Each structure stands twice: as structure tokens, then as C-alpha cells.
Amino acid sequence: QNATKTVEEEKPEPPTITVQEIKQKIEKYNAKVTNCLLMKLNDDGTYTGFIKVHLKLRRPVTVPAGIRPQSIYDALKEVNLADMTDKRTSFYLPLDAIKQLHISSTTTVSEVIQGLLKKFMVVDNPQKFALFKEMRKDGQVLFQKLPLTEYPLYLRLLAGPDTDVLSFVLKENETGEVEWDAFSIPELQNFLMILDKEEKDKIQQVQRKYEKFKQRLQQTLKEAGGKPG
């Protein structure tokens, strides 16, 4: 909470650009939109729009256990279902999961991360995650970690609506070394169980692979029947 509060207190002003320039960029952006996900300019010079975020998380996330899915009533009343139980469980989010967010030009990367975690009812510390921009250049896919104070919608506006040019990805906040102190004891125990299962599955895959190779080799020797060459 203290870390989040510090980020909010240091929240910078949006990029300095005149309302007329914003209007022109939004008109140019909307002209390229092939769906209904348009950007809208507000009277105060801010603007709203949509971004899509791909969730590419390799580690499991922690969510409340044994609670019902969020209803429309919960969403409208901003009911936090995670506060209704102390029970926790961990699972892997699908690697192809995509979440669409309606945000403002004043919404920061930090707020986008927190919004995503809230929508998926993930109770992990937001500092465990980072938002990346994915770009394609010369047949290569490039990732760049975004600062917590960056404005994703402004990047979307500059890049245009084509997600092949720019897309957003939520990944683990890799810092070279995993900060295990940020995880609770149940989370660490659950990771050990998952790693143990993955290890056993990998061993079985390798064993099956070489068992098939052994069978084919034995069959070839049998068919050869001692024939020369």
C-alpha cells in the first residue's frame, strides 16, 4: 500500500500537447479503427479509449478460494469479492488470455496493472507484475518494460489501433533474481508442488520418447535379421 501510495503521489502530468493536437491525433486514430473501439476527447482535454492487454504469466497467481464469480451488481457496486474470504488458492492463467480495458489518458501503467489484477481477483502484490509494450520490427518481436508512471493510452494513440505495431503484455516483474521474500509461505509451498509435478511430467515425457526410440531400434534390428550392411 505504501508503495502504491508513493507512485500515486509522484504521478506526473500527462504529456504536454495542445487540445488541438490531441483532437487531430484522435481523428487520425479513429479513421483507422475497424471496430467500435474509438477514442473520445473530453471537454477538459483528456481522452478515453480502449487497450488490450495479453496476459503472459509463467508462474501461478493467487486468488480467493471458494467464492462465486463476480456479478454485474458486484461490478457496479465495486464489491471486492477477495475481501469476503481469507482462503487462497493458486492456478495458472491461460497464456492466451486477453483483457480489454477502457481507460483514460491520465491512467498510468501502475493503475492498469492494479485494474487487471482486480478484474481477475488476483490478490498477489502488484509489484510482482510489470506491463510491457510489444513491438514488431524486421521480423523480430521486441519487448520493453514500461515505467509505472507511463500512460498506456497515449502510447496507443501515437502507435495507432494496429496491435501488430504495438501491443501491451502483462508479465512477471523480472529483476534478474526472483524476490522470494515477496511470496507467502503457502504460495512458496504451492510453487514447490507445481514444480514437482512439472518435473515428474518432464521425466515421463523423456522416458516415453526414448522408449519409442528403443522400440523402433529393436524393430529395425529384427527386420534386418543379421543381413549384411
UniProtKB/TrEMBL annotation:
The keyword tRNA processing does not apply. GO terms for cellular component: microtubule; nucleus. Residues 89-175 form the Ras-associating domain. CDD domains: RA_RASSF5, SARAH_RASSF5. This is Ras association domain-containing protein 5. InterPro entries: RA_dom, RASSF1-6, RASSF5_RA, SARAH_dom, Ubiquitin-like_domsf. Residues 196-223 form a coiled coil. The keyword Nucleus does not apply. Pfam families: Nore1-SARAH, RA. It is found in: Cytoplasm, Cytoskeleton. Residues 177-224 form the SARAH domain. GO terms for molecular function: zinc ion binding. It comes from Casuarius casuarius. GO terms for biological process: apoptotic process; signal transduction. Interacts directly with activated HRAS; a RASSF5-STK4/MST1 complex probably associates with activated HRAS. Interacts with KRAS. Probably interacts with Ras-like GTPases RRAS, MRAS, RAP1B, RAP2A and RALA. Interacts with RRAS2. Can self-associate. Interacts with RSSF1 isoform A. The RSSF1 isoform A-RSSF5 heterodimer probably mediates the association of RSSF1 with HRAS. Isoform 2 interacts with activated RAP1A and ITGAL/LFA-1. Binds STK4/MST1, inhibiting STK4/MST1 autoactivation. It comes from the Eukaryota. Keywords: Apoptosis, Coiled coil, Cytoplasm, Cytoskeleton, Metal-binding, Microtubule, Phosphoprotein, Zinc, Zinc-finger.
